[in-house]
UniProtKB/TrEMBL annotation:
Similarity section: Belongs to the ABC transporter superfamily.
Keyword NAD tagged: no
ABC transporter domain mapped to chain residues: 2-222
Keywords noted in UniProt: ATP-binding, Nucleotide-binding, Transport
Residue numbers of the full-length protein present here: 1 to 222 of 303
Name of the featured protein: ATP-binding cassette domain-containing protein
Any one GO molecular-function label of the UniProt entry: ATP binding
Keyword Protein transport recorded: no
Length: 222
């Protein structure tokens, strides 16, 4: 579903991403593990077409992100690391706004928002202002936003960073459920996160891929 081949990104003299290749198939949750500054966000942004690669290709469902970025974005939901939310808006209102941006109107929009609210567990919070929600619930709003166009692929940048243990376990449960019929790629700098969620881990350090292996295999090596 997602094929990354020989991806490179250079900023001045710095190789932020240095020849990274991996693939993620449907029903897979792939953990993208590496310390801060390893190149995780840059790789994700290149996969979405937000950052142009210096070299290499990304294909989603066979579409090259540089040739057909809209075809790619239609299939990918993205949760950025620092998701800017409108804190004054009500959850329901915000998701209607996001649905509207994606071209949904009328009954279809109402149904989609109702589905999203239920899907990410925001039923009791939907009439609250986003600014009044805990970080964990704000992250659910971000996940709902990423799901609004019913994408086949989810790219989540550090989805549990800054959450408390309870919130982390709830967001993990959600990601696990979503991964059942989607392709999920999420980044983290915490190994247990990968162990808890993923079938496969792609480990990067200083822009280079250092391992791409089933989690069980990595655990056995450690
Ligand atoms: P991670 O997500 O793993 O923390 P990033 O992809 O954000 O890592 O960053 C990888 C490296 O690239 C870092 O050294 C970062 O400082 C650098 N970098 C990222 N974006 C830019 C940019 N727009 N301009 C210059 N350097 C950048
Ligand atoms: P139905 O299949 O009867 O339309 P659903 O509850 O499956 O009922 O869907 C209700 C609404 O939610 C529809 O507008 C549908 O397009 C939308 N929807 C269904 N699945 C997803 C999904 N994974 N992500 C986003 N929206 C979805």
């Amino acid at each position: 579903m997602v094929e990354v081949e020989h991806l490179v990104k250079t900023y001045g003299a710095q190789q932020a991403v240095d020849d990274i290749s991996f693939r993620a198939d449907k029903g897979e949750i792939v953990g993208f593990l590496g310390p801060n500054g390893a190149g995780k966000s840059t790789t994700m942004k290149m996969a979405l077409g937000y950052v142009p690669p210096t070299a290499g290709t990304v294909r989603v469902a066979g579409f090259d992100v540089r040739e057909q970025p809209l075809e790619v974005r239609r299939r990918v939901g993205y949760l950025p690391e620092h998701n800017p939310l409108y804190l004054d808006m009500y959850v329901h209102e915000y998701l209607e706004f996001i649905g509207g941006v994606h071209g949904l109107r009328g009954r279809e929009l109402r149904q989609r928002v109702a589905w999203l609210v239920q899907r990410v567990g925001l039923t009791r919070e939907q009439n609250k202002q986003i600014g009044a929600l805990s970080k964990g619930y704000r992250q659910r709003v971000g996940l709902a936003e990423a799901l609004v166009h019913d994408p086949e692929v989810l790219i989540l940048d550090e989805p549990t960073t800054g959450l408390d243990p309870n919130q982390i376990s709830e967001i993990r449960d959600l990601i696990r459920e979503l991964g059942e019929n989607k392709t999920v790629i999420f980044s983290t700098h915490i190994l247990p996160e990968v162990a808890a969620l993923c079938s496969r881990a792609v480990i990067i350090s200083r822009g280079r891929l250092v391992a791409d292996a089933p989690v069980a295999e990595l655990a056995a090596r450690a």
